[in-house]
Amino acid sequence: MRVFLAGATGAIGRQLVPLLLAAGHEVTGTTRSPSRAEALLAAGAEAAILDALDADALDAAVRRARPDAVIHQLTALPPRIDPRRIERDFAATNRLREEATPVLVQTAHAVGARVIAQSAASLYAPGPPGTVHVEDDPLIDPQDAPKPFQRTAQAVGEHERHVLAADGIVLRYGYLYGPGSTISVEGALAREVSRRRLPLVEDGAGVWSFVHVHDAAGAALAALAHTGPAVYNIVDDEPAATAQWLPALAAALDAPAPLRIPALAARIAAGSHSVETMTRAQGAANARARRELEWKPRYPSWRKGFASAVA
Ligand SMILES: NC(=O)c1ccc[n+]([C@@H]2O[C@H](COP(=O)([O-])OP(=O)(O)OC[C@H]3O[C@@H](n4cnc5c(N)ncnc54)[C@H](OP(=O)(O)O)[C@@H]3O)[C@@H](O)[C@H]2O)c1
Fold first, then answer.
1. DSSP, res 68
2. According to a count of CB atoms within 10 Å of the terminal CB, is the N or C end of the chain lower?
3. Which of 90, 176, 184, 234 to mutate to test the pocket of ligand 1 (most atoms within 8 A of CB)?
């Protein structure tokens, strides 16, 4: 297949390019950077140098590539998300979802290509305590999201609606870890854990679902063999409370065990969104992706995955 990969140089894109090429696909990958374009060429892909917010350039590049499939892995998060500046730190990614997604979807439709796009498994409307979300659960209504997250919830909802309306496939990724991500040798979250700056809040009951960047890429490769509209949670087998995964990550980093602080102190230091994610977040289930995409993660649990990511 000819594949147009928007965001070929990010944490997921860098894993996905070699997987696509090894599976025999022809790849055109986007980047804004001439030096990263060189790396794509050296890897055996074609490169399209463009800013995805330039609609004409994006449209023209997709048409030039004449793809059978368009894979959308564009995001623009800073290496370290400041929990007190969530709105600012997600603004560029929201713009990509609001502005680049419709162009990718419309141009893909015009050239007869299918669309696969990344989304997030952390935006479900909260369910009763202990809920592990499946794909048919509703996403959070932007009005009900914490204030700094409302624009993101809105942008993600619209992004998914565009993709699904074009019979595309949405991959709702869990919290990414592995090379190029925030939990990696050079990653910002790993550094904070090493310095004992990421504490447990209250009883650490917030549940996170993780996925290794290699497995996130593997899901996009698997999705090429399928048609939508469809949504898949791309998460590992083991949603875990912060009280479980945070001490395990500290141990993998040879760092001291995390401190434990009350919610009030966390709210003052890092804002209410942090308290929510550390105490009330809920995980997601991957049964549909395993069954329908026949997706088999190399790291079915963060327990082994973290050790490999920070080794
Ligand atoms: N679910 C999750 O947990 C999750 C999801 C995403 C990110 N993160 C974290 O956030 C950090 C950054 O990751 P990321 O995925 O946002 O960034 P990333 O890994 O750097 O990937 C972003 C991709 O989008 C491209 N891109 C961004 N803005 C663009 C634009 N205007 N025009 C064209 N291409 C554009 C980049 O290309 P060029 O820069 O080469 O142009 C790159 O290929 C990581 O630490 C990661 O762990 C976490």
1. S
2. C
3. 176
